[in-house]
UniProtKB/TrEMBL annotation:
Pathway: Cofactor biosynthesis; coenzyme A biosynthesis; CoA from (R)-pantothenate: step 4/5. Homohexamer. This is Phosphopantetheine adenylyltransferase. Substrate binds at residues 10, 42, 74, 88. It is found in: Cytoplasm. It comes from the Bacteria. It comes from Metabacillus niabensis.
Length: 161
């Protein structure tokens, strides 16, 4: 079966911070499923399909990463994939409280799947998809924040040349 992890998120869009966690997780786990989930409290810029396509493009060089979407509970998806772990990135202390709540609820839903937190690389500790979208919307330089494919997609969305 192997050592399987699920790295969930809305990834709207994927940033270099997300990619850092995925790459490092792929070194630790035999297989990493990047699961694009819809966060009902957010209005996404990219469709689920667009997000999956972008993630597939920027992770295509990592052979043990699989990108999928899921409508439902994360723990149900993790069980379907026979995952032993949930992989989550932490940027700052401010992320911890939210992540602790989610992890505690996931443990209630299924206490056989462990959650692993990975600290993001310091150069990405300030980075979020929301910040990237805001900068891109106003034609700011995001080339150091996201992979090239994501930069192109954001420019297209905001009609920036």
């Amino acid at each position: 079966m192997g050592n399987i992890a699920v790295c969930p998120g809305s990834f709207d869009p994927i940033t270099n911070g997300h990619l850092d966690i995925i790459k490092r997780g792929a070194k630790v786990f035999d297989k990493v499923y990047v699961c694009v989930l819809n966060n009902s409290s957010k209005q996404p810029l990219f469709s689920v399909e667009e997000r999956c396509d972008l993630i597939k493009e920027v992770t295509s060089h990592i052979p043990n990463v699989v990108v999928e979407s899921y409508k439902g509970l994360l723990m149900d998806y993790a069980n379907e994939k026979n995952a032993q772990a949930i992989l989550r990135g932490l940027r700052a202390v401010s992320d911890f409280e939210y992540e602790m709540q989610i992890t505690s609820m996931n443990r209630v839903l299924d206490d056989t799947i462990e959650t692993f937190f990975m600290m993001t690389n310091n150069q990405y500790s300030f980075l979020s998809s929301s910040i990237v979208k805001e900068i891109a919307k106003y034609k700011g330089d995001i080339s150091e924040l996201v992979p090239n494919a994501v930069e192109r997609a954001l420019k297209h969305k905001f009609m920036v040349e």
